[in-house]
Amino acid sequence: MTLVGVSGGNRTRARRLRITVRGVAGLAVALGAPGLVTLLAFTSVRTVVPGLLYIVAIIFATGAAGRFGGLVAVAASAYPFFHFFASRYDRNQVNAEGATALAVFVLAAVFGSEVLGRQRAARESAEQAVRASETALAAAARLQHVADALATARTPQEVLDAVLTEGVRAAEAGGGLIATLSDDGEWLEVIASRGYDMQYIEPFSRFRVDGDFPLSEAVRTGEGVFIGSEAERDARYPDLVGRSQPGHGLVCMPLVGERGPIGGLVFSFPRDEEFPPERRALKVALSRQAALALERTRLGEAERKLRERLEFVDEATALLTSSLDLEQTLARLTSLAVPQLADWCAIDVLVEETGEIEQVVVAHQDPDRVRWAQELRKRTRTTYIDDEFDLTAQVMRTGEPVFLREVPQELLDEAVARDPEAARALEEISIHSAITLPLRAGDRALGALSLVTEERAFTDADFELAQQLSARAAIALENARLYTESERRADAALALAYVGDGVVLLDKLGRVRFWNAAAAAITGVGDDEAIGRHAVDVLPAWKALTRHLELADAATPARARPVTVPIDTGAGDRWISIAGVAFDEGVVYALRDVTDEQALEKARSDFVATASHELRTPLAAVFGAARTLRRTDIELPAEQRDRFLEIIESETERLTAIVSQILLAGQLEEGRVDLATSATDLRPLAESVIFSTRVRAPADVELRLEENGQPAVALADEDKLRQVLVNLLDNAVKYSPDGGEVTVELGSAPGLVTLTVRDGGLGIPPGEQERIFEKFYRLDPSQTRGVGGSGLGLYISKELVARMGGRMSVRSRPGEGAAFTVELPAA
């Protein structure tokens, strides 16, 4: 709808026309009314009657044409009155009456015109006041419509719509335009218009405040610019000649809010205009209302956006602190940033070991485009932190963010030149604006956060929000790294706490910082007694333990060479193997209790010595007997020859038994002994072994079998059980140097069969009763009157019984003999 204003020139011409018509009508009354009265001359009326009527005619003429009309009527009345009415009498009377009549006529004209003039002036003043009030009321009504529309506007766009509809109507204009100040206050940007041809608007969509334009002047000065015609506009602003839309009247008003200028408002008129004060005041009021409403809604919009941004930051903070799963957390973060902040969001991290930049997550609203981006990343070349041209690498190195409100084309061209995959990427996406921010923890680079839009440009507020987001993402990255590191250290500490080797950490001053349970078990000193004290105060033997130790360097811990040292601890004499590694903050020691290994090694050494002795004795006998039999210088009697042959045979059997035990012990240790269990009657087995043992036993040792009358049938391997019984009887006979009785007892219980070999010999000390079943273990010869063995018999026997599903135990007192019991499952 086009609003047309009333021309000031037309109003002037109409006013002049009304005055002319009024003057002609008044002159006709001034001449016609006296003429009508003069017609009474054709009658015989008295002179006084036409005189009064002439006075009435003069008053009418004065009312119709003012004082000038009244005087014309006086002239038109005086002559006829004197000529037609006064001439009937005496000439002297006539002169007197004529003079009186003329005076009366003149006074009637003067006083009548004065009275009527005042009345007319009062009426015109009243009418003008009514017209002014009506005009003011209409203007107030229009202004109220604008105020109502602006009051209900909730967004800047609604304010613009209200100004360009109700505001243009209230200003009696044909079109309107609104421009706002840029953030730096140097530019005016057209944000809405109505009634304008866009071909004239587009070249001026953004123009400088200091330019020679009417709206620029209004914003600079804070005063409205009122232009009545196109000619006046072209004269005042030559830069607009031929460049702006043809028009007539123009008003440019500054939009000034409570916080200063925010833009400008333009009203254009289809005709030349005059702008009296009241019309100017209306435009000022309209611009003021528009400015306040626009400022209010912009503040409201800014508050809403700020609230949304704070909610976004709060949500991001809550998200980043809700989990320490780094990849999942960052994926949710980038999904939160898209599309609230950007069209694309990606997070790259620095792999410190290699210097590579690895993209851990990328987000977009379209899952297909996300998959495309992930595939593209796999095909692109690897980026390193020292890449001079890569934007992400630059941000990580310098720690400075990069904000490209509009990405320069030359930057994209450089990327295409370096990597052909970039060209294919730019065919899929349009990069309009970009923000890349560092993710840092102190001076340490962790990665970078990248945001990209494809159409709109990032604002300063977006950049500020992105900085807050990157700061929180950096905290999440650092927390995840610290959590991973703490988990690793916790796992290491847990492992060190429960590892079998003792671990001791000393600081540079030699004070204990870590003392695990194994170290406490090895030394007999608890960690509560050790932590914080010097090692030599915790363990007096510490110096002796570390005296010959050579520490390895932290860079080459594998070169640490342990030394083994015997020390006296709270747990007794122990053999300790110790190794150490020095590092910046102190020394870490690894302790291992090798007392058992030392004992085993000693047992092995003793076994070798014993086995050598055991093998050497029969070998010497066999060798001696063989040499004797081969002598040719003497003649041996047949009995002696037989005796020597018996020696060779028996000693060979002894050698075979020793070697068999050694081989069987190795097979048991390797798990290569096969057993075939079956129902085995222990009575005939025991009788057979007792009979063969009796042949070899000394005469002062008596062997016998005892039964309880119940069947003794076990589920066992008969050959292996025979070997067990042979070992037990040989030991019983061997450790009964004074002779005595050796008894084999057979018994049974529900589900079990027992076989016990009892002797009355030397016995076994209580502290040795468990160890005699260890491989290579032998009692001290001083406790056995020099009786010895290989240290394998009882080990083999117990292992064989265990593999048959049974168990072996011993009961003994020194000097009172021993009882070895074998329990086997009943068949």
Rg of Cα set: 64 Å
Low-confidence stretches: 1-9, 89-94
Biggest sheet character? 6 strands, antiparallel
Count of helix runs: 23
Can you walk me through this structure?
The protein has 827 residues and is an alpha+beta fold. It has a six-stranded antiparallel sheet with strand order 3-2-1-6-5-4, sandwiched between helices. The protein has a six-stranded antiparallel sheet with strand order 9-8-7-12-11-10, with helices on both faces. A hairpin with a 5-residue loop joins β24 (807-812) and β25 (818-825). It starts with 7 loop residues before the first helix and ends with a strand. Residues 1-9 and 89-94 have low confidence and may be disordered.
What distinguishing features does this structure have?
827 residues; alpha+beta; six-stranded antiparallel sheet; 23 helices; 25 strands; disordered N terminus
Task: Detail the topology: elements first, then pairings.
Blueprint: H1 8-38, H2 48-85, H3 91-152, H4 156-170, E1 175-181, E2 187-194, H5 198-201, E3 206-208, H6 214-221, E4 225-227, H7 230-236, E5 250-257, E6 260-268, H8 277-321, H9 326-340, E7 344-351, E8 356-363, H10 367-379, E9 383-384, H11 391-398, E10 402-404, H12 409-418, H13 420-428, E11 433-441, E12 444-453, H14 460-498, E13 502-507, E14 512-515, H15 517-523, H16 527-530, H17 535-538, H18 542-546, E15 552-553, E16 563-569, E17 572-583, E18 586-593, H19 595-629, H20 638-670, E19 678-681, H21 682-696, E20 701-707, E21 713-716, H22 718-734, E22 740-749, E23 752-759, H23 793-803, E24 807-812, E25 818-825
Parallel strand pairs: 15-17, 20-22
Antiparallel strand pairs: 1-2, 1-6, 2-3, 4-5, 5-6, 7-8, 7-12, 8-9, 10-11, 11-12, 13-14, 13-18, 16-17, 17-18, 19-21, 22-23, 23-25, 24-25
Helix pairs in contact: 1-2, 2-3, 3-4, 3-8, 4-8, 8-9, 8-14, 9-14, 12-13, 19-20, 20-23, 21-22, 22-23
